């Protein structure tokens, strides 16, 4: 077994699904049944109309993630599951920070810090100002630390969204799914299509 | 009660206004349903009202508890190969299905369960008999769906049947709110579902894997086949037999697979797993190529996984891609329906005999006969053993009966020793181990195979869990032979307490009612025997009785099922005593 298979790391699981009530529950239960923590979960439309896309982040070994992926793909309304390490995806998370307006107005340093961290003003009120940053975890985390001494009132971060570097989208695949006899590609998980190593006899 | 056989309504013409309930029943008829196991209640009353007119096509069996209903549905599905259909009302009716759903899910049994639900406008208000049935049943169903609008009924039912019976079968639950049952709509006809774009019931067969598998098999010196229920679910018994007979490979079964190959087939070397036969367990760790067909390497089959068949190259034939590599790492995965893959494989394999290798299994069998089997089947003790009852039963039925078993020692004994000539003749709760399964499942099994003799073999623990279904037997007049093996203990737990808990018999001493009197109360004749001299005649009386019959056999109290692979041990550490 390769080192990657037994070492835990972050995996980005991308799930293409039909739009179905209760499916989120069905997918979430696959993790909770195995006492696995979902670090981040985002549902959104995909590039194909009517097809939804889940982005799920877990910290697990490849072996466990590949089994989970097959359990998810087995669900009736799930079309396709991919899983990728952070290196294989472009990913972003968005964060909002609420800071007292007075502090910003009085302390020029704060304004500089915000600019250095790529923060953007979303709303200004007389009592507070809301900033937004988008980036990787370390970046959004860093701004919390920066703002903490200046009376950070509220902080929230979104789930992760990720684009798979090697993917050419789902449009062509969906057409295969719609056929009565789908082609090879849609039938099996990607990772099993490249299982040459297993055949070392 | 005299009731005139009513002609069920014909399928209405397009745009006829019918109720959701009527649409549902037309869907069931169109899908070939002939029997429904159910129990009415407030939220499913419109469906029952419509059912009153469908009696000619849809036979409704009134069970005594919804759990009995779903187990009967399972028994029906397992004996007939068709989809079992179950009705229950909302709230408690639906929650009573959960055990059966979990059982059907883990044992891949095709079911369509229809539950009533409160009016849509009451959902989420804690209405009377409201429960979140979709939420509760999600992890124990292959698919579930709530209908709140009658127009959805034909399409959803078509999907439900397609999903339940295709690919790896499983239970589907459809929850229908009362307003949708009552709602009239313009019926657009019924079209069975053949394709759902997000659902691939069968992986495409990959020729390269078949080729690699055949190469491995042809090179193998000590190949060994393990088969499971998949052979029966795929109706591939003939294909399986042809493959075995060409390759000459010895084959052993999981309890879910029992009967797919007749018990007395020369290559059938017995049962796998914790209480399986000696040879198959030991040889699992001796073989060079392990060919698993339609089985899922349950922990009761594999024992300790890190010492399981490590020396072997593993070929795994399965229709469910999620089973490949789940427990045992596969060398060659043969995706697909074994009905398709087995003939392809048979074409490529060489005709062989493996006589010496097969003889080794027989050597182990002899050891097992000497150490365990002879004394179990032909005991020298005064008290009767479970094994001898099964042996006597075999001699009378000659392996022609359907044997339905509950869970525990009697289940292991019955599965080990029952002679099975035909497929779909061993019905048991394999994966979930549901006590109380056998009595209702036997009722369903008989409805699914009216021309067969059905014998429910049940322990004194399990029978008391669903004994109310004697009422179902009484009312439906179905012919089920009930064989209670009474050892006055929760025997399997007691065995473990004896072996692993210093004989601390904690709450396993269970008393029984007078079963013969109980049966009599239900109008079912019965007999209880505690002497060997009476056993044969009693079994003959049970089997020749024109209707149902209950036979209680008092067996020795503290007998253990052996061989045994203790939990946490490797299959090669199987104990003969």
Automatic annotation (TrEMBL), chain A:
It catalyses: 2 pyruvate + H(+) = (2S)-2-acetolactate + CO2. Pathway: Amino-acid biosynthesis; L-isoleucine biosynthesis; L-isoleucine from 2-oxobutanoate: step 1/4; Amino-acid biosynthesis; L-valine biosynthesis; L-valine from pyruvate: step 1/4. It comes from the Bacteria. GO terms for molecular function: acetolactate synthase activity. Its EC number is 2.2.1.6. Keywords: Amino-acid biosynthesis, Branched-chain amino acid biosynthesis, Transferase. Residues 12-86 form the ACT domain. PANTHER family: ACETOLACTATE SYNTHASE SMALL SUBUNIT, ACETOLACTATE SYNTHASE SMALL SUBUNIT 1, CHLOROPLASTIC. Belongs to the acetolactate synthase small subunit family. Dimer of large and small chains. This is acetolactate synthase.
């Amino acid at each position: 077994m390769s080192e990657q298979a037994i070492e835990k790391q972050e995996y980005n699981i991308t799930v293409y699904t039909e739009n179905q009530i209760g499916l989120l529950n069905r997918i979430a239960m696959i993790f909770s049944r195995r006492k696995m923590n979902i670090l981040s979960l985002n549902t959104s439309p995909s590039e194909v109309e009517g097809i939804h896309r889940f982005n799920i982040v877990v910290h697990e070994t490849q072996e466990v993630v590949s089994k989970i992926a097959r359990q998810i793909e087995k669900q009736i309304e799930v079309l396709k599951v991919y899983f990728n390490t952070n290196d294989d995806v472009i990913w972003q998370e968005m964060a909002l920070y609420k800071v007292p307006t007075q502090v910003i107005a009085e302390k020029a340093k704060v304004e500089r810090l915000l600019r250095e961290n790529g923060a953007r003003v979303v709303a200004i009120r007389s009592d507070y100002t809301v900033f937004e940053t988008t980036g990787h975890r370390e970046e959004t985390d860093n701004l919390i630390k920066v703002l903490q001494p200046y009376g950070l009132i509220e902080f929230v971060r979104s789930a992760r969204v990720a684009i798979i570097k090697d993917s050419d989208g789902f449009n062509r695949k969906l057409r295969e799914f719609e056929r009565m006899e789908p082609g090879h590609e849609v039938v099996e998980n990607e990772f099993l299509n490249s299982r040459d190593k297993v055949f070392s006899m | 009660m005299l009731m005139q056989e009513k002609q069920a309504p014909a399928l209405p013409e397009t745009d006829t206004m019918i109720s959701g309930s009527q649409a549902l029943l037309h869907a069931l008829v169109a899908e070939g349903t002939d029997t429904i196991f159910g129990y009415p209640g407030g939220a499913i009353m419109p469906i029952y009202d419509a059912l009153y007119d469908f009696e000619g096509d849809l036979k409704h069996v009134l069970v005594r508890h919804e759990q009995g209903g779903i187990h009967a549905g399972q028994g029906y599905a397992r004996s007939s190969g068709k989809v079992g259909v179950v009705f229950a009302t909302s709230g408690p009716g639906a929650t009573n299905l959960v055990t059966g759903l979990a059982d059907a899910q883990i044992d891949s049994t095709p079911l369509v369960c229809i539950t009533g639900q409160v009016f849509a406008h009451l959902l989420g208000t804690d209405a009377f008999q409201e429960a979140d049935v979709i939420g509760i049943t999600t992890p124990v169903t292959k698919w579930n769906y709530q209908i709140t609008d009658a127009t959805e009924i034909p399409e959803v039912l078509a999907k439900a049947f397609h999903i339940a019976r295709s690919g790896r079968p499983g239970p589907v639950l459809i929850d229908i709110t009362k307003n949708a049952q009552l709602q009239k709509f313009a019926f657009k006809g019924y079209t069975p579902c053949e394709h759902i774009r997000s659902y691939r019931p069968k992986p495409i067969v990959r020729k390269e894997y078949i080729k690699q598998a055949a190469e491995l098999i042809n090179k193998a010196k000590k190949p060994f086949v393990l088969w499971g229920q998949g052979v029966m679910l795929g109706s591939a018994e003939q294909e399986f037999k042809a493959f075995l007979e060409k390759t000459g490979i010895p084959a052993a079964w999981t309890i879910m697979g029992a009967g797919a190959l007749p018990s007395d087939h020369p290559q059938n070397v017995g049962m796998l797993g914790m209480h399986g036969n000696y040879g198959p367990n030991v040889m699992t760790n001796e073989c060079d190529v392990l060919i698993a067909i339609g089985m899922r390497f349950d922990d009761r089959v594999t024992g300790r996984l890190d010492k399981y068949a490590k020396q072997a190259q593993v070929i795994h034939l399965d229709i469910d891609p999620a089973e490949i590599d789940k427990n045992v790492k596969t060398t060659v995965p043969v995706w697909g329906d074994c009905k398709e893959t087995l003939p392809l494989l048979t074409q490529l394999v060489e005709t062989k005999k493996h006589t010496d290798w097969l003889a080794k299994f027989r050597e182990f069998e002899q050891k097992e006969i000497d150490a365990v089997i002879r004394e179990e089947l032909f005991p020298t003790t005064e008290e009767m053993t479970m094994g001898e009852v099964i042996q006597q039963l075999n001699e009378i039925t000659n392996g022609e009966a359907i044997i339905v078993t509950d869970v525990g020692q009697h289940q292991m004994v019955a599965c080990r020793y029952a002679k099975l000539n035909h497929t779909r003749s061993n019905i048991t709760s394999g994966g979930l181990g549901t006590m109380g399964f056998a009595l209702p499942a036997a009722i369903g099994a008989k409805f699914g195979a009216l021309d067969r003799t059905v014998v429910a073999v049940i322990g004194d623990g399990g029978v008391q869990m669903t004994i109310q279904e004697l009422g179902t037997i009484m009312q439906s007049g179905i012919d089920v032979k009930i064989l209670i093996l009474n050892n006055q203990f929760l025997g399997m737990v007691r065995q473990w307490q004896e072996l692993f808990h210093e004989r601390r018999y904690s709450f396993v001493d269970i008393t029984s009612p007078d079963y013969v009197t109980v049966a009599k109360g239900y109008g079912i004749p019965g007999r209880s025997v505690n002497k060997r001299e009476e056993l044969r005649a009693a079994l003959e009386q049970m089997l020749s009785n024109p209707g149902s019959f209950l036979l209680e056999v008092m067996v020795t109290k503290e007998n253990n099922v052996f061989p045994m692979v203790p939990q946490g041990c490797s299959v090669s550490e199987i104990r003969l005593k």
